[in-house]
Structures are given as C-alpha cells and as structure tokens.
Design brief:
alpha+beta; 5 helices
C-alpha cells in the first residue's frame, strides 16, 4: 500500500515537472518568435528622426510640404485627425498631428482590392490606428508613426501587425503619448495629397519634417496639387472613426486668406486637450 502511494506521487511529480517544462519551452519559443518578428519589422523600418523633433510646431494658416511621402512627422495643423477608417483623402497636416499623439497612420493605394481595404479597416478596431487612401505611393500599403515608416506588400503583410504592436503609443516614437485620437476633426478632402517629397536645398542640413508652402521655392510649391474646382475643399467623413466618444467634434473654421495662390488652406480647429 505504501509502495503504491509513493509510486502515484512519483508519477504525479514527473507529470507536473513535464508540464512545467513544456510550458517553459512554449513560453521561450513564443518569446523567441516574437523577438524574431520584431527584429524583422525593425530591420525593414526607415528611421528619419526622433520623438523629440518638431514637437508642438503648429501652423493653420497655409498648407505644408513634407520631406517624406506619406508624411511621418514635422510641423502640423493644431487639429488632429480622429483615428479610424476614412474612404477618402485626409489632410496631411491633420494626420501628422495624430501621429504626434502616438497613432499609427496606415495609408493604402486607392486601387487596392476591396477585400484588402476591408482588412485595413479592421485594424481600426484598435485605438490609435488611422487608415486612409493615399495615391502615388510606390507600394500598396505604408504604415507610419512619428519619425518611422515601413513599406508593405499589402494588407496581409505580416509585418503590419508587428509594426502596430511595436510602435503604437510607444513613448519612444510618440512625442505626446498622453494625447488622444478623438475629439479632433473628421474632415476629408477631394484634394490629392502631396505626391512628391520636398527636397531641402542643402541636403547636408538637418531634417525639417515639414515646411510652410510660402517658405518653399516656387518649384517646391508646385509639389502641392491644386484643389479640383468642382469639389469642396473638405467634406464630412461618411464613416464614423473609432475611438471613445468624448464630446462634439471640433469644427474647422474658415481658412485664412494668407495662403499662396493655388494652395488649398487646411481646415483648422482648436483641439480640446
């Protein structure tokens, strides 16, 4: 009887040790896979500048030109874009402000198949994810955060989810991680976003992120497309962006008349912080 009891205890102990060992090995394997996944993503990420660069620089009187297309940070509009999915273009200046608060801005080729667009829309079930079309990119999908960007093969590219996990609301690339991504604006526009990157006259000078169009050369100003005459500059978004409701959305006031001829003033609003 004593022998049988000891034998059962011995078997139970061995089984318990085996299960613990399997759990440890499984945890190590998962951690190793996640580290490899993160390494694969960070390897492919283009790094331009840090979270401390261009923070809080606001301009709402005229459009801005950016050094990276789609933009990844710099001078921006005082109003941030509400995170969520947009089927139409949004203004660069507002999307950049959302990234300052830690949002991941996913831009996609408007010609992307509808099933892939649906996948991208599903990413906005998470807070601090912004999705909108952006024509003229050399890849189907681009994901951007403040100072960083990755080019993707499509909505099903495994690196997209890894990029979101690694950089969304990450203080290392979120100049204002305490910021929100709702109670901003939900305006869309028919104006095609800037298609070509602004090039600094002196390539050895520090990055500037963005520059007011009035400070750029006439050649650089031509990078900003004109607004189609038959379409309004901005229309309300038809899809309600994701994010906790926290009061009425800010309404952009009338554009300042100081913008250069041919340039499209950007909707501005005073965000509620």
């Amino acid at each position: 009887m004593v022998y049988e009891k000891q034998r059962r205890q011995w078997l139970i102990t061995r089984i318990a040790i085996g299960l613990i060992g399997l759990a440890v090995l499984g945890g190590l394997a998962f951690a190793g896979f996640r580290e490899f996944e993160n390494w694969q993503v960070t390897r492919d990420v283009d790094n331009y500048f840090g979270a401390d660069d261009f923070v809080g620089q606001h301009i709402d009187t005229e459009p801005l030109l950016y050094e990276q297309i789609p933009p990844i940070g710099g001078v921006h509009n005082p109003a941030w874009q509400n995170c969520g999915f947009y089927p139409k273009f949004i203004n660069n200046e507002n999307g950049v402000h959302s990234m300052e608060h830690g949002a991941v801005w996913i831009t996609y080729d408007p010609a992307l198949p509808s099933d892939q667009i649906d996948i991208l829309e599903g990413k906005t079930d998470q807070q601090f994810v912004l999705v909108s079309p952006y024509p003229g990119m050399d890849v189907p999908v681009v994901a951007s955060v403040w100072g960083k960007q990755i080019k993707l093969d499509g909505a099903t590219d495994d690196r997209l989810d890894s990029f979101i996990r690694e950089y969304r609301k990450n203080p290392d690339n979120s100049p204002e991680p305490q910021g929100i991504c709702w109670r901003g604006i939900s305006a869309t526009t028919d104006t095609v976003p800037q298609q070509q990157a602004y090039v600094r006259p002196d390539p050895n000078s520090p990055p500037i992120g963005g520059i007011p169009v009035s400070q750029a050369t006439a050649t650089a100003q031509a990078l900003l497309p004109a607004t189609p005459s038959a379409s309004p500059a901005a229309t309300p978004a038809t899809v309600a962006p994701a994010g906790p409701p926290a009061g009425p959305l800010a309404s952009p006031p009338a554009a300042s008349p100081v913008a250069p001829a041919g340039a499209t003033p950007i909707p501005a609003a005073t965000p509620v912080r």
